[in-house]
Write a structure and sequence with these properties.
Structural class: alpha/beta
Strand content: 25-35%
Number of helices: 8
Amino acid sequence: MTIKYKKPVPTIFSLFWVILALSSHAEEKKTLVYVHPEVPVLTQVDKHGNIYDPIKQTMSAVFKEAGLDWEDSPVPIFRMYSYLHKKPEYFSILVKTPYITKCCITSENPIFSMELGVYRKPNTPKITKAASLFGKELITIEGYSYGTLKPFLADTDNMIEQNPAKNHQSAFSMLQADRAKYLLDYRGPLKKVQEERQKNGIQYDVIEILDLYFIFNKEYPDAEILVRELEKTFNDLKSASKQ
């Protein structure tokens, strides 16, 4: 004997749950938000003498080519890292660190590279490698991880005394006031700072080149596919610009 099962008739309740599930899925893919420091860590000067952020400029071009919408969110450094960990729609272009890879996936190859160096007064001895920071008193910017140097700086065995500054401008003021002999910072974060540096003869020596990667939260829908597509778009634009 064959038992026939009747096809269930959708009720208003089952339709409600289907609609709810579909709307929830749609909400999962929120508009991407580019979170970055209030003061760019990398700046360049165009032919008209204007300062611009090449990272943001390139990111904008990549997203336009990929047909993706995005929003801009400049925030204090400490809040930026918190957002990347807690808000799936937030992304950035940063140094790849163990703290970042806990919450996020990155592009396979770097998108940018930038210099990390030590600022000093003219008569202060040069520092051209991280190991030479051993036992030094150092001005640092609050919230910055300084890439792979963070564990080295925090290791008490290295006897590095850090004097934190709220921002780049206050860090240079501290250096001028002899709060410490060295300032660890990226090159060229502020036009005003650079003018002040040149005026007072502040020297700068590179100690490390840091690579920057696309950083996306693992919880964002299809995050890995998205990163790979954006990286491919970036490489295509880069190749086209050389032709």
